[in-house]
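Blinded run. Sample ID left blank on purpose so nobody reads anything into the name before looking at the predicted structure. Input follows.
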Amino acid sequence: MLRITEDLEISEDALVERFVRSPGAGGQNVNKVSTAVQLHFDAKNCAAIDDHVFARLKTLAGSRMSKAGVILISANRKRTQEMNRKDARDRLSDLIAKAIVPPKPRRPTRVSKNQKKKRVDNKKWASAVKKTRGRVRPENHD
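Blinded prediction complete.
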């Protein structure tokens, strides 16, 4: 079981792990050992995740979620298969934990009268300064 919160656990049946060769530098070991982990989680068909959480999860996962609702997490940061496995599971549980928390509703705010007055006064002051920047005209002294 993958424990997300005290109330939410995901069964091992919902998780599919594939071990592949890790890309990048690593010497001879990288060509022989499949240490990278690809963790697949079918969020759409998981009974533990309701529709609201799935909608937020879809937004948070972004390109990591396929159109079929399967999340793919690739972990190849660590040197060993076991550490990469733990890293992938931790990243999945963090993602789901973020999706469980509903967003705070936005409260519309208003600009105060004093702020509006200050803005208008500043515009008037700037306008007056700019008016004094005109071309100097010669005066006729007779």
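Unblinding after everyone has recorded impressions. The helical segments are 29-32, 51-61, 81-100, 113-131.
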